[in-house]
Amino acid sequence: MKDETDRRLEQLFSLARTVQHDTSAMEEHFETRVMARIREQEAKAIPWFALVWRMIPIFAVVAAIAAICNMNFTPLHSEDMFAAIANGQEDYAGSFLTGE
Amino acid sequence: MITLTDESSDDHLVSSALKGDDGAFAQLVTRYKRRVFRLAARFAHDNDELEDLCQEAFIKAYENLSSFRRDAPFEHWLMRITVHVCQDALRSRRRNGNHSTFDGQQFEVRDLSADARHEAQQARDLLAWALARLKPDERLVITLLELEEYSVREIAVMTGWSEANVKVRAHRARQALKKILEQHDER
What is the C-alpha separation between B7 and B27, in angstroms, rounded? Predict the structure, then answer.
């Protein structure tokens, strides 16, 4: 049974090899269609500088948020030296200690 | 001195296409479209899909032309792209559960009598039905090996699998195909 199926498979392959899908009609002007599609895709593609230009509002918003956060979370200069050290204001503390 | 042969060589056309000469790429399409159509027709299930597969293969070739290393002929590189495009189509069709094959399409049977032609068509239909029931990779390997008659080494290069892997997959595909045919006969 197995050998018979093998033989049949070989025969099917052999016969199927003689049959080719007739693509001659589809091949006509195929290069024109391919090149048209390539040009269409290229026209749709967005250049990098256009992408950067479109990203400007996002960059502006991020910069604004960073500026607001910086203003809100940076404590005001304290007249108290220990408070200045605790708040990370080493510049002020240094000036205070050196008397500048 | 540049001869006419040099100007029309694949390498020259690839170089020109890379410099922006679309006409050069169109010449490459003209040169290899028949090969691409022939191979893709083994996997497409209708003319629309065949056109799509062939266009996709050439568009991918165009987009990746700069990565063509010229250590192998352009044709081999293009056929590798075509195989990958067909493999993707088979996998996507499998996911969508579509088993249809080329029905009612025009086929060309050369140098055969009417009886032999009818027999060949029947064989093609039965084989197409059975192949559609294989896993995508099995169908790919058995089609390339048995119908397109590529060697194991060529298939390994085209698919990126090792030669041993190609042999194992081909063996499994053959076993699966035999089982499908036996089940078909038992009905």
Answer: 12
pLDDT digits (tens, 9 = 90+) for A47-100: 778 888 888 999 999 999 999 988 777 666 666 767 766 766 666 667 767 776
Among chain A residues, CA nearest to B28: A31
State the best of B27, B124, B144 to mutate against chain A, taking most chain A CBs within 10 Å: B124
A28 and chain B in contact, CB less than 8 A: no
Whether A80 contacts chain B with CB within 8 A: no
Q: Does any CB of chain A come closer than 8 Å to the CB of residue B62?
A: yes
Question: Comparing C-alpha atoms, which of B106, B180, B94, B183 is closest to residue B140?
Answer: B94
Give the tens place of pLDDT for each residue, B1-26: 444 456 678 899 999 999 989 999 99
Residue B13's CB is within 10 A of a number of other CB atoms, namely: 20
> Which among A12, A21, A41 has the least Cβ separation from residue B123?
A12
Q: Is the ipTM of this complex over 0.90?
A: no
Whether domain B111-187 has CATH 1.20.1260.10: no
Residue range(s) occupied by CATH 1.10.1740.10 in chain B: 8-106
Contact B131, B143 (CB under 8 A): yes
